[in-house]
Description:
By secondary structure, the chain is α/β, with parallel strands linked by helices.
Amino acid sequence: MKKKMICIAVCVLICCTALLGCTAGPLDPGNPVTVTLWHNYGGQMKTTMDELVDEFNSTVGHEKGIILSVTSISSSATLQEKLDMAANGDPGAPALPDITTCYPKTALNLKENEQLCDLSDQFTEEELSAYVPRFLEEGTIDGDLYVFPIAKSTEVLFVNQTLFDRFAAESGVTLEDLSTFEGIADAARKYYDWTDAKTPEVPLDGKAFYAADSLFNLAQVGMEQIGESLLSGQSLDLSTEGYRRIWDFYFDPAVAGGAAIYDGYSSDLSKTGDIVCSTGSTAGILFYGDEITYPDNITEKVEYTVLPYPVFEGGEKIAIQRGGGMCVTSSTPEKEYAAAVFLKWFTAPEQNMKFVSSTGYLPVTQEAFDNILEEEMDAIENRNIQKLLMAAATMQREYDFYIPPTFAGFDEIGDAYEEGLRAKVKTAQAGYKAAVLSGEAPEAAFEKAADGAQASFTEGFLNTAVRK
Length: 468
């Protein structure tokens, strides 16, 4: 009997020790584990990330026995290339880091090679309930969580308020008019005519009013807003009446000169005063300063306004949801646990707001949106980021968000769409201007330029897509 009681006591002791070990985690502060992290942040984002990593290492990391070692790879394309090389086992491929910033497409490749940790195992249901559900959804593959949200982006409307006010005073156009894409198209035509009239001795030298960072995003979201889809399976369906609305919005003012035909970020055009407004990623806010430099090198101080993403008339309030997250690669229980400790700390409202308040990204917890966003607003020094977060908070309350699909070839389809559309509009614009300069009436010249343009674009795009 005495031996039996001793055995029971030993078993109880072992169980208690095991439970305590699970509660504390498989780490030993006296023998810290080093966790490697790759990220692709540059500029202010890199500075903020470095500061937060230092804070983690000196506080929670020191307490629990975690040392975070960071490698910054400023080019997103280079980072993804390195990850793909490692996933495919290419010769000369670097060893995978323990944590990395990653987009769903690359994560899918790593996951298929069984190189990612399912983060659902590292978080309780209660912990996961603190995050915005659709942010978790974007990183879920086959029911498991592989890409953890750390900061997200959407698209908004950036308006150069200084230039807009001058135009509005004479045209009657209001900021409210810019809440719909149809209103933007109408304002774009008026703005071109208004600026063209400033120099009557030089014909057709008006300025563009609007630019889109991504015409492909515009098409995807626009179709969702009107209750349709740009995609049919893994192909584009450009022949519907719904798509005609998307086409007309951009094609018509672009041919007439009111919308920019530009292969680059719209902030470049904004910084030179060549546009008044643009749709682009919230993450682009850092590229909008407080002055513009005209082609003659004259500079002017300006104010920007940031508005929620426009909606096609009669459509639903829907915007795109973008941005990668962080993945944890398969390694050891200690490193996977340590990586999760960092992700929990980094995405807690206080730390997460430090990151997004200087970057233009959006926080990922519901608490940050509901409470801290308003409380922290006055502490944010950058007025443009203040305005951005206010617009984002409005969209969080009022909008639904579209998550682009992830399949092989999706990015190539988007590139082909953008390239083909810009080329088609550029050709049509050249024909339109040549006809007007030769004396043809603008209405007739436009009809001639537009005739068959969408049909030939659709056919040409499909042929290009097939060849690719």
